[in-house]
Amino acid sequence: MAQLVVVGLIVSSVIALGAIGLTLIYGVLKFAHFAHGDLMTTGAYVAFMVLFGGGHIGPLSFGYGMIPAILAAVVIVAALSVAIDRVVYRPLRRRKAGLVILAMASLGMAMIVRSLVYIIWGPDQRFYVLGIQRAKQLPFGIMLKPDQMFIGCTALVVMALVYLLLYRTKLGKAMRATADNMELARVSGIDTEWVVSWTWAIGGGLAGLAGVLLAIQSHLMPEMGFLLLLPLFAAAILGGVGSPQGALVGAIIVGVSQEVSTQWIPPGYKPAIAFLLLFAILLVRPRGLFGVKS
Amino acid sequence: MESLLNPSYFASFLILVGIYGVFALGLNVHWGYTGIFNFGVAGFFAVGAYTTAILTKEPSTGQYVEYIGGFGLPFVVGLLGAGVACGILAFIIGIPTLSLREDYLAIASIGVAESLRRVFVNERWLANGTRGMIGIPQPLHGIVDPSDYKYVYLCIVAVVLIVIYIAIERGIRSPWGRVLRAIREDEMTAAASGKSVFAFKMQAFVLGAVIMGVGGAMYAHYVKAITPDSFAPFFGTFLIWVMLIVGGSGNSKGAVLGAFIVWGIWTGTDWIINHSPGGLETRIFYLRNLLIGLLIVVVLLIRPRGILGEEKRVSLFFGKEPPKEQLEKDSAAPT
Q1: Do A258 and A274 meet the contact criterion of CB atoms below 8 Å apart?
Q2: What local confidence, expressed as pLDDT, does residue B335 receive?
Q3: For A109-121, how does the pLDDT look when each residue is reduced to its tens digit (9 = 90+)?
């Protein structure tokens, strides 16, 4: 049981990185960004392309080549997100298209991004490093691979940075103001388009990182991010749309329940657990645990 | 491309256009007329197809084939049963979601579709798991030579499509239909006029789902074999959305036209795959997905109302077209 909870927390940390980006985009731009999972996939594959050299950092399965690979994934997916916004979402925003139209466009983008991944890298599973890593014995009978610890620690550090960015910098303040009320933010002299671009950059960068971590945990495949979309949305809505802390709590609930559920029900139902949680929260408290009433 | 001129090939093309047309009409009731953001079409697709399979097949005999029922009922019962099953499913999903923000409904409906697919994969006793159901009987199969059966089925599809089309057109041109459009434009105003927004949305949601269930059943009887993979989100949901958006949401003719065009592009690009250099086929295959994705984004950017767009005034009694300036003033894309 403790083992499942800990593995669940590792899964949660990847979900959280994606869900925080998703909830920021949701908060500022108010639409459901269905391409988020596929941005994660892109990040994983960009790292795969950049990754060079073998070797190992301590007990980890990969060498120092992973550091530039992760950075490349973050930067390229962030830039891609901003670019997509300029080409697709901004013109729609200008035209005051409905939020559903924006969501629909994001679904089209999801399709485009995923197809490109298929075309460039093919449909086969890929690995950063082949081979099996032995799990380390920890107290309380918990077995964890060093890679999994790396995933958890990286996610924690990055989330702390995001927290500082949102609550200790001018940009964070502007982002929260824009999320609260875009019109009001604009008349207060905030350049909301600049805020929107940064929101995409941060959300995209987090998605890129989450994709790499997800692929370190298991492997790369073109559907990997799309399959995580439901847990991402479940986490974001569970925590309350627009609330990064909420997304973290939501991610922990979703990730841990998915793993722990395997004790009683077939693992094939894991994604359905995320959905059941989502359904329950929509029934009981649609604005989520930390959401504000709109 | 020359194969399109082959009558038998063309008939099977038209059968699928007709079946997808039924789905696009159902989705048009949800999204085009009522503004219900259903991203789980694949779920209704699957439930419709499996329901008719269970109702019309004979009971399982083989050792490796398990499924419930096998009632050996006629095709028409299968079709209606599929509709009823989807209607009930829509009712259950609708209770918690129809009063929420529209994008929450979208996410919830993706979840329903994906969870149902898991159920069909994991519960082998229900519908034979990943191996799926094969040998679904076809109506009127004995009356012609099997190689000519396509033309018979094409007629059946055409009849069903026309019946559904006329029913929707009647409905939407009635006071009931105008309430749906009012709700789509502004729920508050509709509620302030004394209309029960939830009840009307529920009716539209169930009606659209019934139509999708019938579509799923038509598909099952045409292909004869279904597996959970037949209802993956791309074919089951996304393609149908593209058809509706391209053809023109809020317009039944547009829905059917969209099915024709998008399925035409899909089939027409077959030759790219067949003529691509060896070893590349697996990747080139995804060029079509890319094309479909681009199509929807470009249409949303350049012509959000689709090819036909919505008729501004729908009533059996008023004149057809409002002045041209008004048409240009307001975009037909539902918000």
Answers
A1: yes
A2: 46
A3: 999 999 999 989 8
Q: Rounded mean pLDDT of B184-188?
A: 86
Name the residue range of residue A172's domain.
Answer: 14-225
Choose the closest CB to B37 out of A95, A100, A111: A100
Structure token digits, residue A10: 């590792």
Please write the tens of the pLDDT for every residue from B61-98: 766 677 777 777 888 999 999 999 999 999 998 888 88
Give chain B positions within 8 Å (CB) of A111.
234, 238, 289-290, 292-293, 296
Specify if A283 maps to a domain.
no
The reply to whether B334 falls in a domain is no
How many structural domains is chain B composed of? Answer: 1
The number of distinct structural domains making up chain A is 1
**Does residue B147 lie within any of the structural domains?**
yes
In chain B, which residues have their Cβ closer than 8 Å to the Cβ of A101? 300, 304, 333, 335
Structural domain of B25: 2-231
Q: What is the pTM of this model?
A: 0.87
Which among A1, A35, A57 is positioned nearest to A211, based on CA atoms? A35
Reference A162, options A229, A245, A234; nearest CA is A245
Tokens of A212: 């790499």
Q: Is residue A291 part of a domain?
A: no
pLDDT 10s digits, A202-235? 999 999 999 999 999 888 999 898 889 989 999 9
Residue A182 included in any domain = yes
* Backbone φ and ψ of B133, nearest 5°: -105, 125
Chain B residue with minimum CA distance to A108: B293
The verdict on residue B171 lying in a domain is yes
Question: Is residue A285 a part of any domain in this protein?
Answer: no
B245 contacts on A by Cβ (under 8 Å):
104
Residue A142 per-residue DSSP state = E
Instruction: Answer whether residue B226 is part of any domain.
Output: yes
Of the candidate ranges A201-205, A274-278, B293-297, the one whose mean pLDDT is the lowest: A274-278
Using a CB–CB cutoff of 8 Å, tell me whether A278 touches chain B. yes
Chain B residues closer than 8 Å to A234 by CB: 111
> Distance between CA atoms of A284 and A279, rounded to whole angstroms?
9
